[in-house]
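anyone else get weird line breaks when pasting these?? whatever heres mine. first is seq + tokens for prot A
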Amino acid sequence: MAKLKNFKYYWLAISVYLLLGLYLLYVTYSAPFLSIEIDDENGQWLIIDPYYKEWANKQDIEAGDIVLEVDHTQINDLPSIMYDSVILSAKVLTILKADGRTIEIQINHLDIPQQLYYLLIVPACYYFLTLIISIYLYCKQKKDVLLNLLNMFILTVSLAYVSIGASSKLNNIGIIVNSGSLLLCLVFLIHFLRNYFSFLEIKWALFKKIQVFYTIPLIAVILSIFSIIYPFARPIISNTILWLFFVLLILIIVH
């Protein structure tokens, strides 16, 4: 990361930002977020608690209904169902009611406007606004190292934010980007503060070798890949990454 002084890397960063961001927004748009808690009882998956209760009531979805299919796939064939007893997203649900009726529910984003606004529209607006601000700052001061570090910080914050929708659906790329960028944005901030304090001739209490901090997001990426391969470890790894985030945040506040 010491090569940030060579600003040809800026446009590479922008290219990665565009590719990852647009893909993550597409994943978020691909199916509405539902978060319906279910439980396995004698081989049947019963609805326990829909997150969006108003929408569920309108669709005649009740606790105790049996979920048969999600997007025309048998629920037992869903790879994530063994470790996460939650229907995260879907376009079509096939449900068996207590009276023996089988109903098929078509779902689109406008049916649940809350998830549309908070997981897609607001993050997308923030994503494109950040892109415009970043390019403007770069064009104004191409040779300012501090400004370019700040630029990298706002780009990674934006990626962390825009990846929430995809990672909440357990999309592999979304999980990796969210974990890595969550920590990388703080590392960029630490790097910025170290250089800023140096510019002001103020002694920096943290490590002089800033490269050490850049191993932390790399560790988060490796842990994320491990959680994808071994889903049973996902809760522990998620908590570990959150604790790393908390430690970095404390270091910034204290120093």
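and prot B, same format (seq, then tokens)
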Amino acid sequence: MGDYAGAVAAARAFLSAGFTVVPIQFQNEDPPQKPWPPQASSKPVPWCYFEMIQVDDRLRGVGLPGNQVWLAVGNMFAHVWVPKGYGLPAHLALAGQVVELFRSRTLYNTEPGVALRCWSEQGQGPSVQGGDRKSDDGNWFGAVVVIPFQLFYIK
């Protein structure tokens, strides 16, 4: 039966398979490599931090308990970090790859009544929101890709 944990796993797997140009770190996990942040030839390279946050859960359809459609909504965030000096156009192009990966996608539709849609109820899709914000140490700049989601599931 579909649930939020399964949707998170599906979104993570989809990002990992489709956005392979940079290392990705996930919530509550150790960094995927050492050193972290990643380096190549002793120089910092871009990386991504991914999180998925549910903000609401509501009954969407009729039926008996155990056979009702529920809707969970929220946002996925892909924080794309680049080292100082990377350049804004290149940074936005890198973040834009995540936007295009998730645009109009339906994931996790493994059974009837279960689907993770990568757009909001009002139709807003993924977008880069904010860009080139400096890290506390000034060595990194981040852009956030916001991916609204709707998760339909049966309970």
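btw re prot B: The first strand starts at residue 24 and ends at 26. The two ends are 8 Å apart (CA to CA).
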